Amino acid sequence: MPPERSARTAATALLESITDPGGDQWIHDLEAHRAAVIVRGAALVLGSILDHVNDHELAGRTPGFIESCERAGQRAAARPGDSAQLAAGLLFFISVNVELLRRRFDPPSPAEQRASDDTCRRLIARPQTRRAIHALYAPEGFTRAARPGERPESAIWRHLDVDSMAYFKAGTTSLILTVREQGETGPPAWVLKCVLFPWGNMSAIANATAAYASVYGRAPDPIVRPRASTTRWVLMPRQEGDTLRERIDRCRAAGELDRAGDRIAFARTVAAEIIAALRVVTDARYQHLDLSPSNIILTGTGAVKLIDLGRNHLYSRQVGIAEHDDSVYIAPEVKNRGDSPTSDVYSLGIIVLEILSGGPPRDGRVPDAIYEMSPVLGRAMDDLIEERPAHRLLLMETGTDPVYARLGAFLAEAFSLAEAEPSASPSAAGRAYARFAPASRELLTQVRKWRQARGSPIRHSGYLLFFALLASAVWWFVFTRTAVPQLADVIKEFPRLPKAPTAAAIIAFAQGLVSAKFYQTILARLTARGIPGALPLATEIAMRSMPLLALPTTIVAVGWKPHLWAWSVAAGALLVALTNLLCLLLARRLFASGRGHDLSTVPDPGVPLPRGFEQWWWTMLLYAAILTIIAYGLQVRWLHDETAIVLGLMVINLGIHYISKCALAGPAIRGGLARAFVIGEKVTALTRTPRRRG
């Protein structure tokens, strides 16, 4: 019988063992073939394994394909003879192969993954499975005895200790085993990456795997240098430590990443180590192109080792499984079979965002929670994950230093400022105080930011600090004039208690409280400076006027004409409505401009700003109109119960404006506006003279 026909007959027998568990003819058919024919038959089955699994499920056969395959292997293992034992090992391996494929298409939960790993570990612990793997993955032309002129891979394969093979972990497209060479003792020193079927039959994957050792065998130290590779496997030294994926999962399960400050610190450390490794790799004229948490090893010293470099063809448009699992980390141009100097920068941004937010952004945009936590960190991340390479690193300073040296400084500054955020405080009481206090600890935060940003490329730090200081000074001035009993009140009518505060003082206190909270929580970090145009200028002027909002009521109504308090508050509400409207119009214009320049991080047109900010301007305008009516009514004496009016306004100011809008919704609003201003910065950078990025 011709060899090819014999292999097809063996493949048919193996399939019958899975689909017809009650019969025994398949065992006799396999026993009639030589070992090499049975191995080729198994390769034929594995080459179309997805079709066979699909046919099994469509036929409604029970049990499932994996369990049926394992049962067939057990029946073969119970029979004597080398052919039956080889068939058993091949069936066990087919079970492992299908189990790992299933994880690619149906990502398991942590518990399901542990159960899956246990299944693979148990099956590969069988001696039949290990010998089947050694036969199935043998290099082309491999023989048991050494031959003159054979390829080095054959000699290496021959000297592997088959009995030491053990399941290590699952890769994206591979089964990863630990193994020793014959004569070695102690823990296995090598890792064998076996490409799963049917991926190994795809020419793009097979060619890349075969060339891996020659391409990366002399790569610089952060890259784990392979010892040998063929179209179906790569052998490399085993590295001590965890993959970044394992470290993230373990830290998250232990609650070590629950607090924002812990996430920021961990992300900063990881980003710095990855950048240091990528700088060395880039200087040696390499790129990773498949940078993901699973392909980064963190050693015991915290240093980074890089594995599995090169384009992952499983996630390229060529293969057609581009939007699956770890593909979220891969730069769009790499998926489209290209690359750019910033391809790994994109992957780094996605990895950092996963650490900060709990998962990679599937829509390719910085999550709202990052901008809410730290606008400056959101700005930095936004600059890394643009889909088009030419749109990345627009906000990073240019210079003659290598791109990763500048990127390291850029992110270090962003992380330093993020660590100064009140939301990063380890104290729950401190975070709550910053959330609800009038000044929101903003002045202290701005001072720290200013100190850290001196001499750095981060702009506007001193400018924003001045207005944060002004807002705090105005608040304390209002507080001392309206909430603290004056000495004259005590001495003038001693021994009577101080006089009850007037309506003007009460409302001035409420206005000062809300205006301080509004500015410090929402506007203190935002600036439209550097964005050209009349609308950005008008918005900037309006935002910077907000610290002075409560002064007229305090100076005029409290210190001079108390009956003017309602007119003063109405004018202040009108100015706030105008500021909100200008911010909204500018945000919409900047988002539209970003879409026009094809920036991928711009929210979709139908996505509103967070927490209903679109309604803030007209609700405040309505509030100003009501205050105007109240002011006129008090002036012409249509209204008489001033105390009831003031009480009602206090409820509105404290309940709605202070707590609901500023304290609870304010950080999200600030984040949404900050995103818009970042888009404006990018568009401005794009419309300038093109800059060198790398």
TrEMBL record:
Keyword Secreted in record: no
GO terms classed as biological process: signal transduction
Protein name: Serine/threonine protein kinase
Entry GO MF terms: ATP binding; protein serine/threonine kinase activity
Superkingdom, taxonomy of origin: Bacteria
Protein's organism: Catenuloplanes atrovinosus
Residue ranges occupied by any Protein kinase domain in the UniProt entry: 142-404
Keyword Transmembrane helix among UniProt keywords: yes
Keywords of this entry: Kinase, Membrane, Serine/threonine-protein kinase, Transferase, Transmembrane, Transmembrane helix
Chain segments annotated as transmembrane: 461-480, 500-520, 566-587, 616-638, 644-660
